[in-house]
Structure formats: structure tokens, C-alpha cells
Amino acid sequence: MSMANRIFKLQYSRFSLVLQLFIFLVILSLSYQLLSLAFWLLSFFIMALAWFYFLKRPYIKHFEYLDQQDCSFRFSDPSLETQRRKISKIIDHQVYITLYFSDAQYQPLTIWWDQLPLLQWKNLKLLVKLA
User: Fold this and answer.
1) What is the reported pLDDT for 66?
2) 84 touches 111 (CB < 8 A)
3) What is the pLDDT of residues 16-44, one digit of tens each?
4) Whole-angstrom distance, CA of residue 28 vs CA of residue 42
5) Whole-model pTM over 0.70
């Protein structure tokens, strides 16, 4: 596999955003039935604030699969440096792939199917099978 097939430029996942919004609305509708109006409004405000906070966090915009375990990652925030991380485990869940890192300080990375063009998605799935 050529080196060009090991570079992945991630877009923001629209599917992930819609899924989060759907879960947000389900939780709000269930809590509306269980809570008084004041507590429901408070929980709505806290949930909305938390959702916007998580949307504003820097996300991985580009990564390059260097070898069997090493990858380099670039973030959406240009002030953050490129990081090199070791992958401990990769799990293919068909519609998304999760990368687990050997260093516990890094959260697992979930890559949704709509974050990559189709050819890059197939290349990533091939790398997962080969790993």
C-alpha cells in the first residue's frame, strides 16, 4: 500500500452531529415527563451548554498512519502541535472505526464513515484488516 493511501484528512461528521442531536432531543423529551418545569429548563440549559462546549473543542483534522502502531495527528486548532501517538487497538464497527491509544491520557478516536471520502474510507478499513 502506497504512502498516499496512509494519509487521512477528516471532515466534521454530519452523521455524528445528527445522532448527538437526536439523543439530546430524546433525553429532553423523557426528562420533560419526569421533571418539573424549572428542573427541566435547568437540565436543558446545562445539556445545551455542555453540547456546545464539546462542539468547540479542537478535533483531529488530519492523521497519517506511519507504521503498524504509530500515527501522527494534526488538530483543527493551528496552535496545537502535531502529535505522534501509538495505537494499541483498532476496532471496526462497520459505520465507524475506533482507535485506542497506548497512552491513557489520550481518549479513543472515533472516525465515522462520512468523515472521509469513500476511497479513503476503504483504505482505512483495509489498514484495519491488515493491522
Assistant:
1) 83
2) no
3) 999 999 999 999 999 999 999 999 999 99
4) 11
5) yes
Query: What is the rounded distance in angstroms from the CA atom of residue 5 to the CA atom of residue 96?
Result: 18
If one counts every other C-beta atom within 10 angstroms of the C-beta of residue 127, the result is 17
Q: β-strands 60-65, 70-75: how paired? A: antiparallel
* DSSP three-state, residue 29: helix
Q: Is 105 exposed, middle or buried (0-12, 13-18, 19+ CB in 10 A)?
A: exposed
Per-residue burial over 19-51, b if 16 or more Cβ lie within 10 Å, else e, is eeeeeeeeeeeeeeeeeeeeeeeebbeeeeeee
Give the distance from CA 23 to its chain's centroid.
16
Chain centroid, CA 106 distance in Å: 12
Task: Compute the average pLDDT of residues 59-65.
Answer: 90
Edge-first strand order for the sheet with 7-9 is 7-9, 60-65, 70-75, 83-92, 96-101, 109-112
